[in-house]
Each structure stands twice: as structure tokens, then as C-alpha cells.
Amino acid sequence: MASTVRIDRIRCQGHGLCAELLPELIELDDWGYPILRREDVPEALEAHARRAVAVCPVLALRLERGPRRTPPPAA
Amino acid sequence: MNTALRLLDGPDGEAGAESLTSHQLRLGTLPPPEPAWLIDAVERSGLLGRGGAAFPAGRKWRSVAERSAGRAVVVVNGAEGEPLSGKDRTLMAIRPHLVLDGAEVAAAAVRAREVLLYVGTEYPAARSALMRATAERGAGRVPMTLVEAPTGYVSGEESAAVQYIDRGLALPTTTPPRPFERGVGGRPTLIQNVETLAASALIARFGPGWYRGAGRDLSPGTALVSLSGAVARPGVIEVELGSTVGEAVSTAGLSEAPGAVLVGGYAGAWVPADAAWDLSLDPVRLRREGLAMGCGVISVLPASTCPVQATAEILSFMAGASAGQCGPCRFGLGAAAETASRLARGAGVAGDVDRLRRWCGQLPGRGACGHPDGAARLLGSALSAFAEEFRLHEERRCGSTRRSERVA
């Protein structure tokens, strides 16, 4: 089962470690905040993704089991 | 016929708030509060939320009802933070009982134990109309309490409203959980715009079939539209969905030659005037075309006014309105506003337009709420509608006769 990367945008402080460890999926914008190239993690990158989640100093990165959920009701 | 009076039917708005007697004589009483029937009726009516996101109201009600167990909360959203919108405060001020009927119907449908009237602090006429109306109605099935919504563009965003009511901070929170799962006091919460609730009150009375009798394009019903800018008679009108931007503007008349039209508000899009008139005022149609109905704002930019300047002013507002919690919104909107302002005042540097284009593509989906997405839509529309003007400004030239004119 594939997994999905999620970023808590309020927690994220732009430390940028995720982009170093997972450049295949994450790049940084001009201010050092992550841009997700894609959310679903290919199996070959699972271990790297888990490492990126583990090193985020503010715990803003999460790995969710399963494909992307359909968005629930918005405002 | 471009106006279809349903929400604004009845006594003239100049007369102020409609009394309970007049309201009941005109519309009759509400049907018995049968939750399953009400949810089904709103679902089948096809009513979409009128706060900006155009989410199906019935589906939202069902999501809250499923989790309620009699403890849900209904928040009547009258924060109206969009600077060019006036429809919510108008509706609350002149048809308070229709709004409260909607709140009552929604509360019955989701088995809520309380209703909070979340009304913008700058709208005293709306607040006093609702207060007087609740007093007129006496103790109803569910207690209704007024909460003043603080000034601010994001105050009306669902999670910000919940956090303000619970903790006094009108800041969006990370979702999930969404308010329908865990909202006010941790309880399932239905947050619905005042116009959506008013429409629900009519659907409860006259049924979904009646509601679907209006609507000429993809979505049923009518909507309130706030007209501003280069129009002779700015204000709030009601239109049948699927009528055109041109029809709506013609009810107010142009006051000078138009250059472009802002459709949907500050989180909406610029459309060159020639292309705007035939646009269908239908949230689903507009979304298909990459636009947004938003909260129903239509603002006409005069041809004599510099569109780069007008765009820079909106972006500056949006940057200032950012809650500043998420880096991409805080820094991205700030930089975009600064760059657009620099171009507008003739101090642009080579590469500015490309930078704007790049940032614009990077903003969507990178905030806890949709604020950066809205600003990006506005900026993207400007870069395409006013491509030639932006190019000229990068060379520190301007094709407009008037350089500084507020959009509002």
C-alpha cells in the first residue's frame, strides 16, 4: 500500500531538512518552505520519506498510509 | 430578466428590518422540524454554499447530522470579511427573520443544541436587526447567541471562526479535523453563510422542486451579488444563477468606460470587460472556466485606471490579511504584493513579471486555509488579463491615463 506525504503548514518553519533527504519529492521555495512535487510516495522512496519525517525539527511532516483522501467539506 | 426576487422579495430594503409579522404573513410558518426530510430537501435542492467555496449545503448538513448525537452547534456565518461584498450584512439587516429561520431549520436538521450568530463587528445594523429579531421570536427550540466576529479577511474562514469562538483567536487551524468533525467546543459544527441559510429557509417552506425552478445554467436557485466599481448604482442585487455578468451590471448601469471586471472578489479573478459580459453567474460553470463565483462580488474597473496598480492594491490587502501562520502565504503574498506595487509605481526591474508568474504557480495548496490559493487566482488572472500592461510596467511605462484609483 502506497503512502502519502503531508505537511502541517502552520507547524512548518522552513528548516528544509525534508528537501535534503527527499529531493525527489520535495523542493524549497525562495523562502525555504517545502513544495511537494507529488504527494504519493513511490515504494522505493518509503525509507527516505520515513527518515525525512523523523528529522523534521518541528514535526511538521507526516506520512499517511494509503492514497490521498478525498477532501472533506470546506468553508 | 436578470433579477429574480426570492431572498430580497418583500418590503423595500430602505424600510430596514422586516418585522416578524410581515415576514410570517408573507411567507407563512416553517414546516415541522423533521431532520431527515430537511436534509433530503436541501440536498435535492442542489443549493451550494454562498460564502465562497460553493460546497453542496445538503452534504455538509448530512456530515454534521451523522456525527451530532444531539450535541452539534450551528454557526451562522455573517463575518463577511471580503471588502467588496455587502450582501451578507444587507440580508441580515433587512431580512433577519429569513436568516434566523434558516438557522432554526439547520439546527433542527443536524439536531444542534445551540446556534451562534457570528456577525462582523463592523456591521452594527446587521447585529441589531438580528438581536431585535431574536427578541421578537421569543424562546425558540434552540438557544441563539450573538458572537461578534473580529475584523479581518480570514475571520470568516471556518476553522478561524471555530478557534475565535473557543479561544478568542480568529486564525485558521490545521485540518483535519474539520469543523464538521470537531468544531466549537470539540462538537460537530455546521458553519454556514447567512445567505445559504436564508435560501434553506425558503427550501424548507416551498420544497426542492420549487427551488430548482430558478437557475438557467448548471446550478439551481438565485444568489445575491454585490456590485461596485465603475457602476452608476453600486449595491446588492439578487440574480437568477446562470444569468450573465453583463445582465447584472446593466441593472446598476456603467458610470464610465469599463476596462475589466473583477468576478468573485479579492480571491476571484480579473476578466477583460469584453470577455466578462457573457460569463454565466453560476458557481459550477465559473469553476469549470478556472474562475470563481466566490461570495458574488462583481466590480468594474474603469478603462482609464491602471490595472497593475489595482492588482497591486488587492495583493497588498491580501498580504496584510494573511494570518501569517504559514510561511508560503506570509512570505509569498508579501513578496508578490511588493513586486506588483513596485511595477505599479514605475520602479519595476527586469524579471519581475516572471517572478510573479513563478510565485503564483507555487502558492496554491500551500496554506492551512485557502487564502494563498485565492490570492494566486487573482494574481494569475491579472497576469493573463493584463499581460501587455505588466510587460509595459517592467519597462517602467504605463498605458493608463489614471495611475491611482482604488478598486473599491
Task: Characterise the protein shown here.
The complex is a heterodimer of chains A (75) and B (408). Helix content of chain A is 20%, strand content 24%. Chain A is of the alpha+beta class and 75 residues long. A three-stranded antiparallel β-sheet of chain A has the order 4-1-5, covered by helices on one side. Chain A has a two-stranded antiparallel ribbon with strand order 2-3. Chain A is globular and about 30 Å long. Chain A starts with a strand and ends in a 10-residue tail after the last strand. Chain B has 408 residues and is α/β, with parallel strands linked by helices. Chain B has helices spanning 20-27, 35-45, 57-68, 87-94, 96-109, 124-137, 158-167, 194-211, 245-252, 273-276, 283-288, 307-321, 327-344, 352-362, 371-385, 387-394; strands spanning 72-78, 112-120, 144-149, 189-193, 222-229, 235-240, 258-263, 269-272, 297-302. The longest helix of chain B has 18 residues, at 194-211. Chain B contains 16 helices and nine strands. A five-stranded mixed β-sheet of chain B has the order 6-5-9-7-8. Chain B has a four-stranded parallel β-sheet with strand order 3-2-1-4, with helices on both faces. In chain B, helix 13 runs antiparallel to helix 14 (352-362). The interface between A and B is medium-sized, with 17 and 34 residues.
Please supply descriptive tags for the structure shown above.
heterodimer, A: 75 residues, alpha+beta, three-stranded antiparallel sheet, two-stranded antiparallel sheet, 2 helices, globular, B: 408 residues, alpha/beta, five-stranded mixed sheet, four-stranded parallel sheet, 16 helices, 9 strands, 44% helix
